[in-house]
Every structure is written in structure tokens, then in C-alpha cells.
């Protein structure tokens, strides 16, 4: 069961029903109330889009899960510069589409066997990574970091956030560990793909 | 079963791995390996693999022979050489049958010292420069492969191909290489690794030494990390670039401070300078190590620091603008044949002692230290590293800091073992003595 945090300012009833039909569990949240493990956050931009966008960004920073927004077909331009938004869905909401999109974003939930980015594929059941179907050797932490990146494309993550989300425990290496792993990943992805992970000066890293 | 272990089990299955080597390191820094089949892997994670500790120097006395090697799944790596065999390795922590960490395990000693740093809010990073020689074989007088010089790119450098193969292997093992070049001495090479946290780096150095030797064997030659194989040429150093971080901030850097060095960095340098003679037995652990620490070969002898002085024991490299995070100090005494787990442990312990007890940083020495008299050096507060292994052992034995950093078990075993080595050497009558004394006495 995928858990979805729904911005409580949204039209809750409609979204909760749609999510239920899509096999996900919706819970209303306020920004600043980041308790719980969420697979995806869903924010409705159809009314008061700018205020909701601010809300969505706060939720995304608090919870750190991928954010999906609901928009009308005329609102697509809103998203042009909002790269941190992982996905969007147009109204009228189609249940099957919603299910697919939510479960893709939530990634590791059941039913999702692999995540992909261009020629790179991570098989979540066997933990194997391949590029053009050729296996690459990763350590567990390299694999986990890469998976996190692929599942949260286009967002900038600080080292501290990655340490918390991917390592999740006190580690001797400190936040520099992230740099070391990124360097190793780039080296294993190969020269022409190393740029998939971009360093954002004095902030952190972005994938894709 | 934690996720890391599960990851390893799945990977072994998916990739058709036929052997898993469990690696650990003995007190003197030799890599030991126990090979297991994939079927035994789950047991190894759950209970550890029993091995006979008495077969390994320092690991057990005869009556407490059994030890357990517990693989660290984070260090799982498929080995790039002999790919047809599909072999992987993991580094292990050694525990006693009661499940207690074994005090004679160098990896545990380093973990303990890193924990002490972590309690003070620091994580410890190391970037190494490792030198070694290629010879035609390990037998008899060393025969060099070429007469290349520093950064030499002539056809003389026949070993370039071996070095390139080695670097490829290291990259495949997830050990990024920063630079590599031919050294001043004939047939001598240097490979510098990208800095990382000290525990990973100690594992990496062990892997590095094996990779260099493996690639040499494949080419029918011999690679050695012996500190000083050729009397007339430089020995093989293992310069260590050290830094402390607090979170993701370099704790050695302070904008606008003298030399760009923070109070933390100054304390760390002062700590290492003060305790350098006591820890030299660990960073330079062989009789032959002291043949490298002599005048005229760019190796440090005196305990002082400087920014640009190739004979300094501690050099503070100039940091490029905007590269604050690469602020570091370079400790130049160790040689390539030391035990990296123990060397990093004692340097960290000495540095932390300097920070915690507010040692005063002596002034930088910029003039030529070799032209001074002993009295002049003394006036500057400059001491000397031990000149022989037995002097180094004396200094170590009198040091509380060393006993504390290594733990009683390791400390006393190391001293016992090395005293024996020194005694053996003392019994040896060398060519030098025969040539010099026989004709005239």
C-alpha cells in the first residue's frame, strides 16, 4: 500500500477517492507536520496555484518524498521552472493514470520491479544495476544512493538531506561521505554519463 | 538479516559469484584471506566464520585459538582480476567467540579511534600518496625495469602499461585515483588516491597493495612496497594528507586566519609534532624503514612543519581560492609498508591530543634545517625522529598516548614482535662491516 500525503488545502474528497481507487492510502498533511513515512506527496494547484505551489515546496522540504501536483490543462506553464516537482496529472483525473504515476514515484512499493533512467536500469527485486543491459558493480550504498536519485529526479538535495534519507544513521564518514559516493558513482557510470549527477555549488547534488 | 547483507546475497546469486574471500589484516599489515562458498555466506553474516587465530601473528595465543571473522557487507566488491573465476571480497571485523570485538584486530583499533573523534564531532579523512617499485623478481639483488626519472614519459618507462592496468583495476574496485606518475628513482612509481574517510581508506590501501602486486604477477614481474630497496635512490613513502571535518565543513579551514588554518588545525599539527617520535614505530615498522629516513633523500628526519619545505615532517599545502574544503596537512614520514589501520589510528590520536590539550603550535621553519647545528635546532624546538627501529620502540614503549590509542593487547604484542625483529637484525653481520673492518682490524 502506497501512502500519499495530500496537502490538506486541496479538494480532499475528490483526491482521496481517486487515490483509494488507485490502491493508495491518502492522509491529509499540513506543511510543517512531517511525521510519518510517505511514498508520495500530492498537491492540488487548480485553485490558488501560487499559494499552493509554496505549500507544495514546504511539504517537499519537510517530507522529502517526491511531489506530484494536480493541474488544469492551462496551468502547464506553471511547472516550467519548478524542476523539483517530480510529476503532474491533468484533470479530469484518470484512476489508472493516477495509480501508475503514484506507484512509479513511490518506486520501491510492491508491483514496481525496476526504476530506469535513460540506459540505466535498477532492478529493485535483485538489486542489480545495468547500463545498456550490461551489469555494473555497485556497493550497497552506491546502489541505494543511485536509486534515491532516480526516484527523485530533478531535485536538488543537500548533503545532509541525502545522508539522512539514504544512510539514515550516524556514519563515521560525516557528510563528506556523500561526495565520496557521488564520485564513485560517476566513475562507475562512465565518462559520458557522469554528468547525470550535477553538483550544485554550495547546495548539493541533482540527478537528471 | 539487514538490507546490506541481503544486497550482497542477491548480488552473489545474480552474478554467479563462485567464491567469496573474507579479508582481514594482521597486526603487521599483511592481508589475510579465508575463502568461502556462496552457500556459507548467510552463516558468515549471522555468526561469523570461525578460523584458527593461532595461525596468524598476534591474533591469538594457542589456548584461545578460535576467532570469528564477520564480513562487513558495506565493503562487498567483485574482484576485477581473473574475471573468469567470478570472485568477490569483503573486509571483516574480528570478534571473539563471545561476540566481543577482538583487541588484536587493527580494523577495530581504527574504529575505536574514529569513534573517539566522532564523540568530539569530527570525522577523519585521509588522502594517500603511495610509492612502490617494480623489479624483475623478488629474488636476489633487485633488478630495475627502467631508468626513467620523475614524470618521465620516455620509452624507458616500460612500466607505464602496468601502472595503467593497475589504475583501471582500482577504478573498477571503486577506488578513485587522483594522479599517477613515474618517480625519481628508476622503476619507482607513485599512485595517489582520492581522499575518503579513514576506515574506507585503510581498506582501500590494503586493496591497493594487493591490486598492484596482482597486476605485476600477471605481467611476470614483481611489485614491492619495501621501504628502501635501493641504497642509492629514494625509498617508497606513503605521504598521508589528513583533515578533520565537522559535518560537511572542513574543520582545518578558517577564513582570514594565519595560514588559513583554524585553531583545530594548529592543535592537530602540534599534537602530531609532539608525539611523532612515539608513533614512528607504527608508521615505520621495519628495520629497513629507517634506511629511508636518512639525509639526502627527500625524507623527513626532523620534527617541524612548513608550507613549502620538502624536508618538513608536516607540510601544509597551499589551498586554491574557493577550495577551502581541501585544507589539509601532509604527514610525510610513513612508508608504504606500514599497517594503514594502525598508522591512521595513532596519527588521529596524536592530533586529537593536541586539540584537546591546547598544545602550542611551534613556529614554521623555512630555512634549511640540515645546515643548522643541533643546538640551533633545539632553540627552534625542533626534535628528531628515531633513527632506528629500536629507538622508535623505546619511544613508543614510554608513551601513554600510544598504549591508549592501540589498546593494551595490541601495544604489548607489537612491541614484543618488533623487539624480536630488531634482535635478529642485531645478530646479522653485514657486508658493510666485513668490507670496512676485516682488512684493517
Task: Give the oligomeric state of the chains in this entry, treating copies of one chain as homo and distinct chains as hetero.
Answer: heterodimer
Structural class of chain B: alpha+beta
Estimated share of beta-strand residues of chain A: 25-35%
Query: How many helical stretches of chain A?
Result: 6
Identify the strand order in the major beta sheet of chain A. 2-1-3-4-5
Principal-axes shape call of chain A: globular
DSSP E strands of chain B, number: 18
Most extensive chain interface and residues per partner: A-B, 25 and 37 residues
| Sheet having the most strands of chain B | 10 strands, mixed
Low-confidence stretches of chain B: 150-156
SSE ordering of chain A: EHEEHEEHEEEEHEHHEE
Q: What's the end-to-end separation of chain A, in Å?
A: 27 Å
- Terminal CA distance of chain B: 72 Å
Tell me, what's the shape of chain B? globular
The residue-averaged pLDDT of chain B reads 90
Strand content range of chain B? 15-25%
- Rg of chain A, alpha carbons: 17 Å
SS-based class of chain A: alpha/beta
Give a short account of the largest sheet of chain A: 5 strands, parallel
Describe the structure.
The complex is a heterodimer of chains A (208) and B (441). With 208 residues, chain A is α/β, with parallel strands linked by helices. Chain A is built from six helices and twelve strands. In chain A, a hairpin with a 2-residue loop joins strand 6 and strand 7. With 441 residues, chain B is of the alpha+beta class. In chain B, helix 8 (340-356) crosses helix 11. Residues 150-156 of chain B have low confidence and may be disordered.
